[in-house]
Specification:
The complex is a heterodimer of chains A (293) and B (227). With 293 residues, chain A is of the alpha+beta class. Helix content of chain A is 73%, strand content 8%. In chain A, helix 2 crosses helix 10. In chain B, the strands form two sheets. Chain B has a six-stranded mixed β-sheet, sandwiched between helices. Chain B has a four-stranded antiparallel β-sheet with strand order 2-1-4-5, covered by helices on one side. The chains are: A alpha+beta (293), B alpha/beta (227).
């Protein structure tokens, strides 16, 4: 492509943008609002995702062993468990340890050993799965090993949790798609007005023998400009708002927000990219009808 | 042969039959009038030349290329062989005379150097020297049509297609425009002109094709049908 043509495309786009200043302003603000809401939805689902995967990774199994097992038999059980696919870690907790932990939660005023006489607790294994979704399956396998008389993992609750997280993911994805479609529609409306204002010029260009791409470029640049400027403003607002939120909330420590700059940077970049894509898409939709000459 | 129509018919989606089994040939360098009452099919025939309309039946060749089989992407190249002159001029109001002509070259990808060289040439050719920097609104109707013709000539087309180019002009100005078109034709460009203006055609002694209700009713090499 000739350099003078590229300059021409940019000049035409700039002319059109400055000629319809009010419309340019209106579109940029709508894109800003759209991308801002989209960005908030993304950050929200990012944090929800993080929160949910933490919840999920907290899911661990406790296998209770028969009290009659000898040390050698306990080792055998451990070997059997380690053979199961998808296990991340396994930790032996002796009955004495368990009692000590229990004692700690009750405090020193209450002597468990004295009350109970002897230690009633069994030896246990704490098992973590690589993939939390596999927990119920692994628990079933562990339960089948001789010497294990019970496996606990919060049966029922875990299945419910996975169901909830599954739906939260689908709903937030649908929400984001609806918002993006709204932004495309808005940009399409704006560029349609600007295309409509120049339909005679476009017709003339077509009859003189301009290629479709020659006609499209200035409008695309216009659309991309609207999308990128709008989304840059949105990202600036979003970054400022989220930054302030991070500072205020880290002191509370109950909820930890995603604060990794590499992750956030990618999100912001993706939002600006989305703005550009929405601009192109909106322009494409409104332009094609007029090119069919 | 520059243009060939073989049994071309056009029926619009609303059922109107605009052209009915038209066959004709146009040679390189010809000057051709298309005449006939409104709705006879002149505009449809003209629009088929630059493929704004496709025939319902039949085959059309322009410079040995089939318009019917042509791909969408090849249409711009076809149109670069033609200069189109409109009844309502279709000049861009916010551009000067020179800019209007440069625009036509720009949109087909001409270099700035070629544009700088060619624009004064065609402005001279149509006799508008000194008006380069006028806006269309500052010109008379005849002058505006001269800009339209200059724009059509800018890309050195094989043929000039004019649909009622004098339709908005008075008799005297029309005759001046005709002289300009004859002049362009003498220099080798094929000219195809649709018109209602019987007087102009009569004076010209050029080939005349008469259309009526979508059919060719007369095709005379020097306009004898009008005498």
């Amino acid at each position: 492509m000739r350099l003078s043509n590229i300059l021409y495309f940019f000049r035409e786009a700039a002319k059109s943008l400055s000629r319809n200043r009010l419309l340019t302003f209106a579109t940029i603000s709508t894109v800003t609002i759209c991308i801002l809401i989209l960005g908030m939805a993304v950050l929200l689902s990012l944090n929800a995702e993080r929160f949910m995967s933490r919840l999920e990774s907290d899911v661990q199994m406790i296998a209770f062993l028969d009290r009659s097992l000898s040390d050698a038999e306990i080792d055998e059980v451990q070997e059997e468990i380690e053979k199961i696919d998808g296990i991340k870690s396994i930790k032996f907790v002796s009955r004495d340890e368990s009692l000590r932990e229990l004692q700690e939660t009750y405090g020193s005023q209450y002597d468990l050993k004295a009350t109970l006489g002897k230690n009633p607790l069994p030896h246990t294994f704490e098992i973590e799965a690589k993939n939390p979704q596999d927990v119920p399956k692994i628990a079933e396998l562990v339960y089948r090993i001789p010497g294990v008389y019970k496996v606990n993992y919060g049966q029922g609750v875990v299945e419910r949790l996975f169901q909830v997280t599954h739906w939260v993911r689908i709903i937030s994805l649908a929400f984001i798609i609806v918002l993006a479609a709204g932004a495309v529609f808005l940009i399409a409306t704006t560029t349609r007005l600007s295309v409509f204002a120049r339909r005679k010029e476009i017709y003339l260009m077509k009859l003189i023998g301009a290629t479709d791409w020659f006609i499209r470029w200035p409008f695309f640049i216009e659309g991309i400009f609207l999308g990128v400027v709008g989304s840059l403003l949105a990202v600036a607002l979003l970054a400022a708002g989220y930054g302030a939120l991070l500072q205020n909330i880290t002191s509370m420590a109950i909820i930890t927000l995603v604060s990794d700059m590499a992750v956030l940077g990618k999100v912001y970049l993706a939002l600006v990219g989305t703005g550009a894509v929405l601009g192109v898409l909106g322009t494409y939709i409104s332009l094609n009808r007029f090119l069919n000459v | 042969m520059l243009v060939q129509f073989y049994n071309v018919s056009k029926i619009y989606p609303n059922g109107v039959k605009a052209l009915d089994d038209i066959s004709l040939k146009i040679d390189r360098g010809e000057f051709l009038f298309l005449m006939g009452p409104s709705g006879a099919g002149k505009s449809t025939l003209i629009k088929m030349l630059f493929r704004e309309e496709l025939p319902t039946r039949g085959q059309i060749f322009v410079a040995s290329r089939s318009i019917v089989r042509m791909k969408r992407s090849e249409v711009p190249l076809l149109r670069r062989n033609m200069g189109i002159v409109f009844q309502d001029f279709k000049l861009l109001e916010n551009k000067t005379v020179a800019e209007n002509i440069a625009f036509a070259m720009k949109v087909v990808g001409a270099s700035n150097r070629d544009i700088r060289q060619r624009v004064p040439e065609v402005i001279n050719m149509v006799g508008l020297k000194g008006k380069e920097n006028c806006l269309p609104t500052e010109l008379s109707g005849g002058e505006q049509q001269r800009v339209g013709i200059a724009r059509a000539l800018a890309n050195q087309p094989l043929m000039l297609i004019a649909d009622e180019p004098t339709g908005n002009l008075d008799m005297e100005t029309s005759q001046e425009i005709m002289e300009l078109l004859f002049d362009i034709n003498r220099k080798g460009t094929t000219v195809i002109m649709a018109t209602h203006a019987r007087e102009l055609v009569k004076q010209a002694h050029k080939r005349v094709i008469m259309l009526e209700r979508g059919r060719i009713v007369n095709d005379t090499p020097h306009g004898e049908s009008l005498v």
